[in-house]
């Protein structure tokens, strides 16, 4: 009799274990604009605090060797959402309001991938993957959208906040009033700096509402802030609060936004089943001086292939899964987010070739795991400007266009001048020289030869306009129907 009872209890336990519902984690990606490697307190920022983001880092993994796929707006966003080098899918640079292209219909975004598992999907913020209807978020996997379709400086307003009256100014010719779009329709225009001041709070409030409405189902929230891209904007509740001035005020409001997101997760019982990823699209736009962020000593910034342009902060926090308060120094990238989410959620990847690598072992605490060995630094119109293997980086001959090291920056919202600069080939050991100051080619000819082979592999796959090579595996962007 006792034996039968034991067998019965075991069978009940077995049935319970095999029928237990698998809970899909919620996914939140907070994607900053032009926020540099040194712009968070936990990465060394000065004269303002980011306690909510720092807490996120203390409860998760802080990545120190995390690269945006390309150091400019549209390209980096295309890479995040598709897991592809942006030049693979025909996106380069920053799409303008007169652009005739956008993300292709055959590219699978994170949102479309997660829809396979019944996720609710929402985006609140800057899109910048095409502003015509066929390119907007609702046509690429998102259920809800509110935000601006491209960068917040693409408007006919001067750096002093006044409307441009010069009919010959390219901004007056090229840029219409900055639209605020809800789903597929424009609902208003942003015409002055006061309109910019409301964006961080507006996006945050919309994100909080999305979380509350979808608390009983898995959701993907994509929050690509317009800040800290110029022109800077901040609400009255943070104006004048930072010792660093306007930029610090803006960062304090961003930190407040993260705090509101985390508080809402806790209040709705979602804290333990939500993976939160906080990172940036590229480094700071240093031409804007005190209205730009910091690279914490990395070389150059946005628009360049040196580490200040590509290396960005990244924090991943998933309570009960990611270890708390640890640092990951392994080479990782925004490219790797999509395939990692696919592994976590059990979704099918696109049939198209992607470039991301699953880093779930790192999220689970295997900090010695090194899935990514190589990285290609592309910029402009499919120009291969550098390649990397582990901590070795070979910069290839090219011209850069920012002139950070030769021109003084501007102040108070005005840019400095730009300059074309010839960049020679150089080899850097990033383990010892993260500022990329010391060319060690002559000491390591075998590394140079190896990385030149890596560059050639990249060219054959993705092409390279600097050497006039067409890639074998590129796909076309979307075009206006």
From TrEMBL:
Its keywords, alphabetically, are:
Hydrolase
This protein's source sits in the domain of life called: Bacteria
Q: What is its EC number?
A: 3.1.6.-
Q: Name one Pfam family in it.
A: Sulfatase
Annotated Sulfatase N-terminal domain ranges read: 25-346
The GO terms describing molecular function are: hydrolase activity
Recorded hits in InterPro entries, A to Z, give:
Alkaline_phosphatase_core_sf, Sulfatase, Sulfatase_N
Q: What family is it from? A: Belongs to the sulfatase family.
Task: Quote the protein name from its UniProt record.
Answer: N-acetylgalactosamine-6-O-sulfatase
